[in-house]
Amino acid sequence: MTRRPHLKLFAAVAALSLLPSLPVLAAEAAKPKVALVMKSLANEFFLTMETGAKDHQKAHAAQYDLVANGIKDEQDTASQIKLVEQMIVSRVNALVIAPADSKALVPVLKKAVDAGILVVNIDNKLDDAALKEKGILIPFVGPDNRKGARLVGDQLAKTVKKGDQVGIIEGVSTTFNAQQRTLGYQDAMAAAGAKVVSVQSGNWEIASANTVASAMLNANPNLTALLCGNDNMAIGAVSAVRSAGKTGKVKIIGYDNIQAIKPMLADGRILATADQFGSQQAVFGIESLLKALAEKKTQAAMGGVIETKVALVTK
To answer: Is the pTM here over 0.85, yes or no?
Structure first.
């Protein structure tokens, strides 16, 4: 008889001791999980993007959790689709994506939206017609790539003469940002009166661009410049120009302002590049999603394009 009241009292105290932790558990459960799905982590630009996103999450750890993933190379679209599918199964609340292909990722992103995940597009804009066909709106947070490429192209234009022959090494040809950068370079060369004799894809990669640049130089011995859609391809072009014995005779421009080209800018092997602030691109997307989640917005109510800045970088 004497033990039973003591046991009841002990049980009541134990139950009460759990109560202070309940609000904490509820808060943790309410913290949104944001997924960042990038392109190739072999590209320094996306490593910089990932670092920027992780630093932001550490500084805002009480606000959200982050899951960051990337694919093995710029053309590994199938793996990126699988990553998005994994994020759907993982029940993330929001998804920031730098799509490897402007059209191929749209169907799986439609699945994500239908699953109640808020989606924001960064880096490479999704195809408007493909989005319309699937009946979804996905806002793009990022720079105007045509404007950025025109900025770098105009810097090159100061060094070329009317009639000079130039070549363009673009990224993966099916991607919107590759297309827009090529258009920006063409705008600048047309304004300068230079002749674009070749446009070929270097697939955003050093080795591919090196092969393409070598072929261009062989086919066009009077080539005076190579306009590259990103800095990786500019590095490949630098190597091809050196192998052809034309260092200093063929000017090269890039796009991204990655750390690896700093010495090449300093010694003139690369004339100019564009800084699109890669470390902040994912952060801009994450912040727009956190705002939308806080305001309980639907995908359709998130808006269209949020343009971010691009700056010219020279020696």
So the answer is: no
Q: What is the pLDDT of residues 182-206, one digit of tens each?
A: 999 999 999 999 999 999 999 999 9
Is the pLDDT at 264 greater than 80, yes or no? yes
State the alpha helices, DSSP H only, in 71-202.
Answer: 77-89, 106-114, 128-134, 145-157, 176-192
Beta strands in the chain (DSSP E): 33-40, 65-71, 94-97, 118-122, 140-143, 165-170, 195-201, 223-228, 251-253, 272-275, 305-308, 311-314
User: Do you know the residue count of the chain?
Assistant: 315
Q: Which residues pair with 253 in a beta bridge?
A: 227, 272
- Calpha distance 99→244 (Å, rounded): 35
User: In the chain, what are the domains?
Assistant: 27-142+278-307 (3.40.50.2300), 145-275 (3.40.50.2300)
Instruction: Provide CB contacts within 8 A for 153, sequence distance 6+.
Output: 184, 185, 187, 188, 189, 227, 253
